[in-house]
Amino acid sequence: MPRTLAIANQKGGVGKTTTSVNLAAGLAGAGKRVLLIDLDPQGNATMGSGIDKRNLEHSVYQVLLGLTTVQTVRQKSDSGGYDLVPANRELAGAEVEMVALENRETRLKSSLDGIAADYDFILLDCPPALNLLTLNGLVAADAVLIPMQCEYYALEGLSDLVETIRKVRKHLNPRLEIEGLLRTMYDPRNSLAQQVSAQLQQHFGDKLYATIIPRNVRLAEAPSFGAPAVSLDKACKGSQAYLALADELLSRSAVALTA
Asked: Which of 128, 133, 144, 214 could cross-link 12 (Cys pair, CB 3.0–4.6 Å)?
């Protein structure tokens, strides 16, 4: 069975999509079979994987509505080395349409049953909101990877997300856990960032990844080339950090399997 991770934080601009595409590419580069599912109507993970969201015949929208299957929709990201279930603005309408459907919270989970044997990791790039799309991601996932900036408002948003995870675990997905918290866009010269980082270490302990993603221009530039930074410029500091994250995730997974 694959390890399914929802990459989620209701706060926007914290590096969810950057983390999704670069972690997917890093795991693929380590020889793992990876599927990335874009659950954000903005379709940034789709474009960042080198697939044009404007020319999609099918997307995750049709999968969630039960009109087609993941096997039909998935595409190969040549620039990233992983498979992708793409998204575009059409997905924005899915949330409204899904309200009237049966099992609306479990539609993504059900759609993954047929492809479980094809992958080692399934990554879910969730939108910056605690909505029905994110809820589908949390119900389908084994664990949540939370990217966050080390700033005051990030701590406030984190408490809301942790409470949502607790409710999903209680009512819909008892196996759901926090995989880890990832510090992104980190500037060590910022004293507030250092203070928030220390607070996270104190409260979350080993749930906080040792890997820290720095602020890096190359990470911001990579989407315009339709490629993850780890594929575009493996030597830059941002890419090196995401490759280290992939290694840390694999090490944690290996420990969990032997425990």
From this structure: 128
SS3 state of residue 245: helix
Query: Which tens digits make up the pLDDT trace of 160-206?
Result: 889 999 999 999 999 999 999 999 999 988 888 899 899 889 888 99
* Token duo for residue 100: 């009237």
Neighbouring residues of 109: CB distance < 8 A, sequence distance ≥ 6: 136, 139, 140
CA–CA distance, 250 with 24 (Å, rounded to integer): 12
Pairing of strands 3-7, 121-125: parallel
Helix (H) or strand (E) holding 71: helix 70-73
pLDDT band at 11 (very low <50, low <70, confident <90, very high): confident
- Report domain 3-258's class: alpha beta
> What's the residue count for the chain?
259
Half-sphere exposure of residue 70: CA atoms within 13 angstroms, side-chain side: 22
Model confidence over 117-163: pLDDT tens digits?
Answer: 999 999 999 999 889 999 999 999 999 999 999 887 777 778 888 99
AA identity, residue 63? V
Q: Give the residue carrying structure tokens 């969630």.
A: 64
